[in-house]
Amino acid sequence: MGRVMVIEHPLIKAKLTKLRDKSTDRLLFRQLLEELTAFMVYEITRDFPLREVEVETPLERTKGHELAQPVVLVPILRAGIVMTEGVLRLVPNARVGHIGIYRDPVTLRPHVYYKKLPRNIGDALVIVVDPMLATGGSAVEAVRLVKGEGAKDVRFLCLVAAPEGIRAFREAHPDVPIYVAAIDRELNDHGYILPGLGDAGDRLFGT
């Protein structure tokens, strides 16, 4: 089964607490989301394969390393788009795709309204990002679409997950690891995570 990795770090815990706070304004919420994503990407890339290269320092040639495979970042719109900058801070050459999914407020089922992915992602390390894993519907569908384009090494990154969403995701994609900052208690009747963050898209964009 795919792993569920809770990334434990004092700075992540402190920033996540501030992100949860309903008094955190839109500007700070966006900044915290980007910072948390960067911290988490640092952790999840620990096992990325490397290849040896030579570089010229001001004094001599020496051996070093670079990522052995291309990286593709796929945010789930809309809230996932803000996480993009956090990833690109650490992997500036990553290619970026976009998948737009909205959740029906009555059925809670995902509906895809946009998909634009880079070509030839079969040899890439693909990171799908969304702030929350609630019912799991959007994440499951996004990873299905990415796999449909040939992706083989896929990882899912979110900040907060509900047990219900984790179960649904692992049933659909047992090969894809989940990286999360916190696993919360449960979903409410409207499919929101408790205690959660509220609606991340609304808090980011003021809608």
Topology:
Elements: E1 4-6, H1 10-20, H2 26-44, E2 50-56, E3 61-67, E4 71-77, H3 80-90, E5 95-96, E6 98-103, E7 110-116, E8 125-129, E9 132-133, H4 137-148, E10 153-157, E11 160-161, H5 163-172, E12 178-180, E13 182-183, E14 186-187, E15 193-194, H6 200-205
Parallel strand pairs: 1-12, 4-5, 4-6, 4-8, 8-10, 9-11, 10-12, 11-13
Antiparallel strand pairs: 2-3, 6-7, 14-15
Description:
The protein is an alpha/beta fold and 207 residues long. The chain has a single domain, classed as Rossmann fold (3-Layer(aba) Sandwich), CATH 3.40.50. It contains six helices and 15 strands. The protein has helices at 10-20, 26-44, 80-90, 137-148, 163-172, 200-205, and strands spanning 4-6, 50-56, 61-67, 71-77, 95-96, 98-103, 110-116, 125-129, 132-133, 153-157, 160-161, 178-180, 182-183, 186-187, 193-194. The strands form four sheets. Strands 1, 4, 5, 6, 7, 8, 10 and 12 form an eight-stranded mixed sheet that branches. Strands 9-11-13 form a three-stranded parallel sheet. Helix 1 (10-20) runs antiparallel to helix 2. The protein is globular. The model has no long low-confidence stretch (mean pLDDT 91).
